[in-house]
Design a protein that fits this description.
about 100 residues; mainly alpha
């Protein structure tokens, strides 16, 4: 468990997700004039927590392993797939 909690890449990804969720909750508070705590764990809306998570993952991987490393390449491809898919789902929902 100690190794898991000391994984800087994983911590960066979770923090990226948490910041996006917190921003959504705060924006909802200003827009609706009420605190909706379910926004902390719900999907959808902006900023995209999926995109924040995979971008944080790729950035932390690149910083720690180098931009020429295989883990960074995997993280970037994974991020691209997630962001492309999320954009497609948002587009389909809006239609």
């Amino acid at each position: 468990m100690t190794e898991l909690l000391s994984n800087r890449i994983l911590i960066a990804a979770v923090i990226g997700w948490a910041v996006a969720q917190l921003c959504k909750t705060i924006l909802e508070l200003f827009q609706q004039r009420k605190l909706i705590l379910s926004r902390l764990v719900s999907s959808g809306g902006m900023p995209s927590s999926h995109t924040a998570l995979v971008t944080s993952l790729a950035t932390a991987t690149g910083r720690l392993t180098g931009l020429a490393s295989a883990p960074f390449a995997i993280a970037v491809v994974f991020a691209g797939i997630v962001m492309y898919d999320a954009a497609g789902v948002r587009r389909a929902v809006s239609i």
